[in-house]
Every structure is written in C-alpha cells, then in structure tokens.
Amino acid sequence: EWIEIDLLENKLIGGIATGARTNYPGIQYVKTYNIQHRKEGANTWVNYTDSSEKLQTFEGNHNGYETVLNELPRHIFARYVRLLPLTFQQHPTLRWELLECTKSKLTAKIAAHPTSSTFRYSALF
User: Fold this and answer.
1) Each residue of 111-123: pLDDT tens digit?
2) Domains in the chain: ranges and CATH
3) In sequence order, what are the beta bridge partners of 15?
4) pLDDT (tens digit, 9 = 90+) per residue, 24-60?
5) Dihedrals φ, ψ of 51, to 5°?
6) Contact 80/5 with Cβ under 8 angstroms?
7) How many degrees, rounded to 5, is the angle at CA 36 between CA 12 and CA 81?
8) Which of 123, 15, 13, 14 has the alpha carbon at shortest distance from 79?
9) Does residue 75 sit in helix, strand or coil?
C-alpha cells in the first residue's frame, strides 16, 4: 500500500509532516514509513536512503494529537512522492504534507521544530 502526490513539476522537498486521523471511532495513524520519489519524465521510482545508501525508515506518529516533522537531510528533487506505510495503529490512515525548500520566509510553521537548515520550508500539499 502507498499514497502518492503529484506536484505537477519537479520541486525540492526538504521535509514531510504527518498526522493522525482522529475523527473516526478510534485513532488511526502511521507509525513508520518509507519514501519513494520520481522525477518528471523518469520511469523508475527511487527509494529514499540515508547517507550510507540504506533504505531510510521514518518515524511517524505515536499518538493522535501531535504532528511529526521529518526533515530530509538529503533533499528530494522530484515531481512524484510516495509514502509507503510499514506499521500503523488500527489502519494505515494519515494526514501528510510535503515541505518545499525555498529561499523565502517560512510560510508553513510547525511549532517546536526549528530548522537548522539554510533553507526554509513552505507547504506544497
């Protein structure tokens, strides 16, 4: 299973924010996930890997009330991004947002998570 976003053109992605589904009987969220991406015109999906080229598994949510931000130290330049849930609470349901790297002011804030990067993030989706 996976969920995919088409950004309509290649964008520089610097982070992913996830949240739980809380308006259903019981709280549903994704605990861990992997990311794949693909540039415009490419036919092959690329797994997001760490600096050792090992498949990166991201920590998602562990409750129904906090938003989790995962910065991508190795930014993604892609049009298509897939999130592949690995473990989840009740059902693989989530809210997610891709954060674009820009040189402009911060337009999408996630409280309590200052960025150490020289880039700023703005919400894409």
Assistant:
1) 444 444 444 445 5
2) 3-123 (2.60.120.260)
3) 71, 99
4) 778 999 999 999 999 999 999 999 999 999 999 999 9
5) -65, -15
6) yes
7) 50
8) 13
9) strand
Other C-beta atoms closer than 10 Å to the C-beta of 75 total 16
Identify residue 73 by its one-letter amino acid code.
Answer: P
**Residue type at 105?**
K
Other Cβ atoms within 10 Å of 63 Cβ, number? 11
User: For the chain, what is the radius of gyration of the CA atoms?
Assistant: 14
Alpha-carbon distance 117 to 80, whole Å? 23
C-alpha span between 59 and 17 (Å, rounded): 11
**How many CA within 13 A on the CB side of residue 44?**
3
In sequence order, what are the beta bridge partners of 83? Answer: 3, 35
Distance CA 101, CA 120 (A): 6
